[in-house]
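User: structure tokens for this one?
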Amino acid sequence: MTGRVLLVDDDRAVRDALGQTLELAGFRATTAGSFVEAKDHLTPEWSGAVISDVRMPGRDGFHLLGHAQTVDRDLPVILLTGEGDIPMAVRAVGAGAFDFLEKPCAPQDLIATVTRAVAQRAQVVAARAQAAKAEAGDAASRILRGTSDRAKALRNGVRAIAASDRDALIEGAPGTGTSKVAEVVHLLSARQAAAFRKRAAIALDPAALHTALAEADGTLFIDEIADLPAQSQIDLADALERTARPVVLAGTYRDLRQLAEDGTLNSDLYWRLSSQSVRIPALQERPEDIPVLFRHYVAMACEQGGLQPPEITPEHLAQLMANPWPGNARALMSEAMRFAVQGGPEEAAGLGLAEKLAQVEKSLLEDALRRFRGRAAQAAEALKLPRKTFYDRLAKHGVRPEDFRS
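Assistant:
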């Protein structure tokens, strides 16, 4: 059996003996003498198990168990207990520890328990890798970009609608791209080989609606469903009762529930469409996605125009992230095209030097935490800052390392 084991014990003799036992059994043991020494090894990418003594000076094994669970609830932690610690260890197992061993433990018991823990961890890691591989290959990941939790929730919502093969409502503020999201739903659906047709609701009188439904054999996207004429709303609600028809996806930036309550929108149509829905978050709700999207749009513009990609500096990204972007992705794309054509940014207006520097500093702090998945010690080291200074800067900007852990 091979696998990694983090062994934590303040007694060096015990630590060395157990480490040797693990190495002889084929495990790769990393040893630490305290919680402080051990914690930076614990990341969601840690592919093995953790063994920790319960009683240690300062922060003990229970504190390490709690920390491991905040990093990754699936990290298996085995506790080493003295004779008097067994009731306490039993409670710890109930709280999430993988198992406990009484010291001194027989080598065969140690190896058997560690083997089970490492095998369980390997299954978890393999399942996550498979899920990540599957996500990276689909249209949602290729087209709906972003690393924020809201971006991930959007992709998952789109996948769920596509898998259902049913009508749905796609909501989002102006410029968020409801038609693009509808097309991604189509590409992920069982109807992807058929046509995706887009129609503006305002132009669909009853005759045009009938024609659109008859011509679409895959997915029909109706843009801004609230603009659909009154009789067409009734006809569409009736059409959605039939089975031989395309899937209908409706886009809107308005509050359809309120419109239905006011009588402006046919309530039957609203309830049929809103039985499943997805909402596209505005850029202001997910500023951490702005650098990802901007770089992508600039690369697209340069490729289409045969242009040399300009340098995108952290300072410019900080300015972009500070913008509220009322026009959302459409406005950011326009800015990226202008940036690509002009070969760089225009000087930001309305900001003083102190404000610009504060934006840049916050952006650099967040970028470092994002790169190291919220591990403050490594982020501080990358920025060449003492830990105290690093934490002071985080507090100044209201940035929390735990928000960047995944």
